[in-house]
């Protein structure tokens, strides 16, 4: 739901369902995919990826998604 729909519903006294948990999980999933794509691009170009920094980021994002989905 975009902002104008939210405001319209609020002004009319209608329920405006906002599923923040889903939005957060989708954002974390996008971040995880972006980090994996960055890693793959680095490997493809012969650049040594910073594994020690990237892996914890992916693991933390996955753990956060699991906590939110419960």
The coarse silhouette is: elongated
Radius of gyration computed on alpha carbons = 18 Å
Please tally the β strands and state the result: 0
H/E topology pattern: HHH
The residue-averaged pLDDT reads: 86
| Largest pleated sheet | none
Helical run tally: 3
Poorly predicted runs of 5 or more residues: none
Helical coverage, percent range = over 70%
**Percent range for β-strand residues:** under 5%
Question: Helix/strand/pairing class, anyone?
Answer: mainly alpha
Cα(first) to Cα(last) distance is: 23 Å
* Number of domain units: 1
Describe the structure.
- By secondary structure, this protein is mostly helical.
- The protein has one domain.
- Helices cover 76% and strands 0% of the residues.
- The radius of gyration is 18 Å and the shape is elongated.
- The two termini are 23 Å apart.
């Amino acid at each position: 739901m975009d902002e104008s729909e939210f405001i319209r519903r609020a002004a009319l006294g209608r329920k405006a369902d906002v599923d923040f948990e889903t939005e957060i999980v989708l954002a974390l999933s996008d971040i995880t995919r972006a980090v994996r794509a960055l890693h793959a691009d680095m490997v493809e170009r012969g650049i040594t990826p910073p594994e020690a920094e990237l892996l914890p980021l992916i693991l933390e994002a996955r753990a956060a998604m699991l906590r939110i989905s419960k």
